[in-house]
Every structure is written in C-alpha cells, then in structure tokens.
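Milestone M4 deliverable, item 7.
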Amino acid sequence: MWSCYYPKEREWIIAGRGRGTFHRTVFDNGRVTDLRPRLPSPLQEVTDDRFGRHGVRLLLKRDDLIHPELIGNKWRKLAPNLERATGRTLLTFGGAYSNHLRATAAAGRLLGLPTVGVVRGDELAGRPLNPSLARCAADGMRLHFVDRATYRRKTEPEILKRLLNRLLGAAGAEGVYVVPEGGSNAAAVRGCRALGEELRGHADVVALACGTGGTLAGLAAGLAPGQRALGVPVLRGGFLGEEIRALQEEAFGGRRGEWRLDERFHFGGYARVPPELDAFAEDFERRHGVPVERLYVAKSLYGLVALAEEGAFARGTRLAAVVTGAPFPA
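Output delivered:
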C-alpha cells in the first residue's frame, strides 16, 4: 500500500483506504496545538508617506509572528496537513531555497515526525549544502536530489510511485504522507481561509506574495463581501491564475471571493533579488522596524508601493499587506 497523487483533485490518498481515514490530531510525540501558534496574528498600522500622500492606509498583517519556526503562511498551510499525517513520515518537494522545505523539516523535528525532502536539481547532490538546505538537514530531513525533468513530472502517479519506492523502499512507502510542493493542496487552502476571516472588517484590499497560490486561494475565500485580495506572483510564467482557480475548485467546489493577480513584480523569477529590490527592502526595514523577507515579502511590498504611485487604490483605502515570512536565518 502506498501514497499516490490523484491529479484531478490534487489530494494525496492512501491506496485502498480512501480519504478521511486518518484525520486525527494525536501524534506519537505531540499535537499541532502543542506548538502554541500566535493566532490571530497581529495587525499593525504603519505610517508611510508613499501611501499616505495617496490617501491609503497601510496595515501589516504580521503572520511572520505566528510561530518562530513555522512562520506565516507555512503554519496555516502545514498545520492541516500535519493533522492528516497522524504520525506518518512526511515527504514533500521544493527547490534549493524552499521555505516550505525548511518549515516541513522544522515541523518534523518539533513533532517527532520523520521528514524527506525531494529537491529539484540533481546537480546539487555533489555540492556543499546551502544554508537553507543545511537547516533542513540539521532538523533531521533526509534530502534527495532529482533531475529537473523528473521533478517536473513528480505529480504523475507512476513517477511518484517510482520515487517513493526508490527513496523509501516498498515497505517504507506504505507509511508516508506526501505534501505537494509549497504545501498547497485542498487541506492547506481551507486552512488559509482563517487568514481572510481574521481580516474581515479591517481592510478593503488584502495583498500578499504568491508562490504556488494556496494562501491566496484560501485568503480570498475567507474575506467578507466587498473585500478584495491581490496576489503578487514571485515566479514568471503567467500560470498562477489557473492554479488558484483549480485549488479553490478542489477546496470549495468553485471560485470564492474577489481576487486578482499583478504579475509585474517577480524581478526575473523565484530567488531573484537584484540590488534594487534589496535596497528597497533595507529602506522599508529602516522606516518601520519590520524585517523584510526578500524572496516573497519584498516583492509584494515593492509592488504595492508602485501600485499606490500609479493610483491603483482609491483614497480612503485600507490596504493590508500580509507579511508571510521572515528573513532567513530568522
């Protein structure tokens, strides 16, 4: 018996047992609630003349303060999947600088769960680990590097089955729970709905950076009528809108909430932090005393400043920017 990916609904199931069988919260060494998240996360208003001169109030939704190791949207997306895992080995996917891999490794250490990370790029196997992957390894995650062609096909059932058997053996594959890249599946999307619910009545527009789209999909569903969600993709390609629609279909049965994307602020793609963006982040930190994570948060904040200058927000708009993570090392 092995975990497989069901492409139509993007849910990991246990062959022969069906969905819903393992939805308990008790683990061998602890519970998700034992990690004591700070929820709801604080909402902090800051004074910034780049917004103020256009009549826009800027609020920061400090999801970076939820938990010191499972930071921001990683908590909201991982917690439902940790509950579903119920003590089984966690296997997930990510690139060399994946925040999701680090968060999964930390969750495994804190809860006593074995973790396996499948890393994009077999050329990395013979090199020293970068600081992000070194943290994963220090937290007990077993890292396996695969070629990029295989990685692109990782959601195909036969490719996944071969990966599981190769990495864990037939016996080990029976007890694995697989979390998609970025942690975005239906369970994660439903978990992120609470983010929107926490912001009801506090903002007109809620903005955040997007990688795989799961956080935006859940956030938009949790907002009240009249509130809008704005996503700033950090990857190139123009594919994310369809991904978000598919995630909402899986989680809720159809599109939920009012949301849109602005694809202009990826700065060349994931993990690209040119000097202009780094300088912007340093200036924001000096202005407001808030640490700015570069791969996601800096791009969303930069985009919001640009949009404010373009007059994209009506005077009187309450704009909430979700701080989805903290700089690494935190």
